[in-house]
Amino acid sequence: MSEVVLRDGTQAMIWPLLATDRATLVDGFARLSEGSRARRFLGPIPALSESMLNRLVEQVDGTNHIALVLTAYPRGDVEDVAGVGRIIRYPERPSEADVAVTVQDAWQGRGVGTALLRELVTLRPPGVVRIVTEVTNDNTASLNMLARIGPPRLAPTDDGTYVVSVTLPPEPV
Ligand SMILES: CC(C)(COP(=O)(O)OP(=O)(O)OC[C@H]1O[C@@H](n2cnc3c(N)ncnc32)[C@H](O)[C@@H]1OP(=O)(O)O)[C@@H](O)C(=O)NCCC(=O)NCCS
Questions:
Q1: 140 close to ligand 1 (CB < 6 Angstrom)
Q2: Which residues does 157 contact at the CB level (< 8 Å), separation at least 6?
Q3: What pLDDT, in 10s, does the model give residues 17-27?
C-alpha cells in the first residue's frame, strides 16, 4: 500500500487488487465511457464477460500478474476508485511484461495513470527488463504515460495501433 498526492492535490492510496474486488471491476467498467473502454481493450467491449473477469481477478498471483487499485479521497469521508492497473509477465518471454491501466473518465489527466504505472514498474515481476504493450495510435495520454518510465520505441501495426516497447531502468539492488 502506498500514499500518493495527485496533480490537483487530491490524496490517494494504491492497494493490491484482491480476489474480493470483482465487484469493484464490474462497477468501474460500468462507469467507463465507450471511448475509454475501446482504448483499454483495443476494440468495442459492451460488458466484461465472466471469463474476462476471471482473468482480471483470479489470475492475479502477485508475482507474474500484479494488479493495483488507486482509491482517491477527494474530501474527508468520500472515497472513489479512480483507476486500476496491472503488469503481466509474458509466459513465453519472461523478461518482458504487458501493462494495462484504466482510469475513470472523471479522474483522467490528474496523474492517476502515471502513479499506477510507476508503482507497477517498482513492483514488477523479478527479471522483467522491458514493457511491451499495444496502444491505439491516437491514445496520446497512454503514449505520454508510457514515455514517463523510459524512452519508448513505437512499431506501427496495420490495425491502427503501436506496439510500444520501453526498456526499464535497472532494478535497485
Ligand atoms: C491512458 C490513461 C491510463 C492515462 O491515465 P491518466 O491518469 O489520464 O494520465 P496522467 O494524468 O497520469 O497523464 C499521463 C500523461 O498523459 C497526458 N494526458 C493525460 N490526458 C491526456 C489527454 N486527454 N490528451 C493528451 N494527453 C493527455 C498527461 O499530460 C501526461 O503527460 P505528461 O506526463 O507528459 O504531462 C487514461 O487516460 C485512461 O484510462 N484511458 C482510457 C483507457 C486506456 O487508454 N488505457 C491505456 C491502455 S494501457
A1: yes
A2: 134, 163
A3: 999 999 999 99
